[in-house]
Design a protein that fits this description.
single chain; alpha/beta; Rossmann fold; 2 domains; 7-stranded parallel beta sheet; 6-stranded parallel beta sheet; 13 strands; globular
């Protein structure tokens, strides 16, 4: 059947930072293409960084306040489901699209109870990680199968995550789990930005040094201890190299102490949470992140869009973004010696850095643009709505 009003899409996530960083481009795209788009999330900031402004608004979209706890809290979870049902009754969405594990469970349950026609979830990574005890893994697998049973479509960022879902039979029909890579704003992340000299001065890096940098939340999964050990190895050979860590998180103090204890404190700049990520990347000569776990690795795509050579962990999602030997190098996670060797090779060879950087930009333009991501997501909305007899 047709509708005499625009199709309405409600995204659900835990915190506004997620909505602002990852969902807002999709919401704005939908609004420009005739949809009514909204997001439901907590109004609180994340512990690892505030939103980029004091405003809790997204241009052209409604923002509903729903307190969804990030950890398991049965009473608060029930309140969140109740509040989401109220939002659904008010907004009357045709599609609910949830993101992050906890919001995925709470949001899909509310959508199921409220009878929303199309239910979609994006799993940036599944929670049943191999390092967890088997009973915990199986509990997560069972929960994912349960909520997936009344989900019309699962979206994932990479083929490796999709295969995790297929192997664990999260969905019975493999066609109900599709890969939609995250996208980069190619206008914002552009190598045509001005020179980095002034910013380097402000960060205490100097204009003559080579800068190895990273952008990450300061949490254990990001492998920043490995980054610092790599930095110490590089500094032992090259006194002209400085290091830049952009991001905030609970490990900030311990990482600063570690840098001092291994003798590289004066050579490492901790920039904290920043909103000018493209400019920070422009100040780098090489981007390195020894992450242990990643759903997609959008920060690598952003660095590649800035024409930066990259070195990343040889894990499934990163290997789908970074092309080894073409746009950068892969190295074993938690191996600072190999990371240092790869970084030193690129620091010695400016021509190779430029070649890798140019290839990286081309790869992002071809595979990981924001426009490509938004078009793919909207295409799935249209297909699923048509299956339910709802057309634009």
């Amino acid at each position: 059947m047709g509708k005499n009003r625009p199709i309405r899409v409600l995204h659900v996530c835990t915190i506004f930072l997620t909505a602002q960083t990852f969902i807002a481009p999709v919401l704005r795209y939908l609004s420009r293409h005739g949809y009514e788009a909204a997001v439901a999330c907590s109004q609180e900031s994340a512990a690892d960084g505030p939103v980029s402004s004091g405003s809790r608004d997204i241009e052209g979209c409604k923002v509903f306040s729903v307190a969804i706890p990030r950890t398991i809290r049965p009473f608060q979870d029930l309140l969140a489901i109740r509040r989401l049902c109220q939002v659904i009754r008010e907004f009357k969405p045709d599609v609910i699209h949830t993101q992050t594990s906890k919001a995925g469970i709470v949001g899909r349950l509310a959508a199921r109870l409220a009878g929303v026609p199309v239910i979609i979830h994006t799993a940036h990574a599944f929670p049943f990680h191999a390092y967890l005890p088997w009973p915990v893994q199986w509990a997560y697998i069972w929960i994912e199968r349960w909520v997936a049973s009344w989900t019309d479509l699962l979206m994932v960022d990479t083929e490796s995550v999709r295969m995790d879902g297929v192997r664990q039979r999260i969905v019975q029909d493999a066609s109900r789990i599709v890969t939609v890579p995250m996208g980069v704003d190619l206008m914002r992340f552009s190598p045509s930005l001005g020179g980095p000299g002034t910013l380097r001065d402000a960060l205490g890096l100097g204009r003559q040094a080579l800068v190895v940098g990273t952008v990450a939340r300061l949490v254990p999964d990001k492998g920043l201890e490995c980054f610092l050990r790599m930095a110490a190895i590089i500094r032992a050979e090259r006194a002209d190299v400085k290091f830049l860590i952009v991001g905030e998180g609970p490990l900030r103090q311990s990482l600063e102490q570690m840098a001092e204890s291994i003798g590289i404190g004066p050579d490492v700049a901790f920039a904290g949470h920043r909103t000018d990520i493209p400019e920070m990347m422009q100040a780098m000569d090489l981007f390195v992140l020894p992450t242990r776990r990643e759903g997609f690795g959008v920060v690598f795509a952003e660095a590649m869009a800035m024409e930066k050579a990259t070195v990343g962990s040889d894990i499934g999602p990163i290997a789908e973004v970074l092309e080894d030997g073409v746009t950068g190098y892969l190295a074993p996670a938690d191996d600072p010696k190999v990371f240092a060797a790869r970084a030193l090779e690129l620091l010695r060879d400016e021509s190779k850095r430029r070649t890798f950087g140019t290839a990286g930009r081309c790869r992002v333009e071809r595979l990981f643009s924001q426009s490509r991501m938004c078009e793919s997501i909207e295409g799935h909305y249209r297909r699923l709505l048509a299956q339910k007899g709802i057309v634009l």
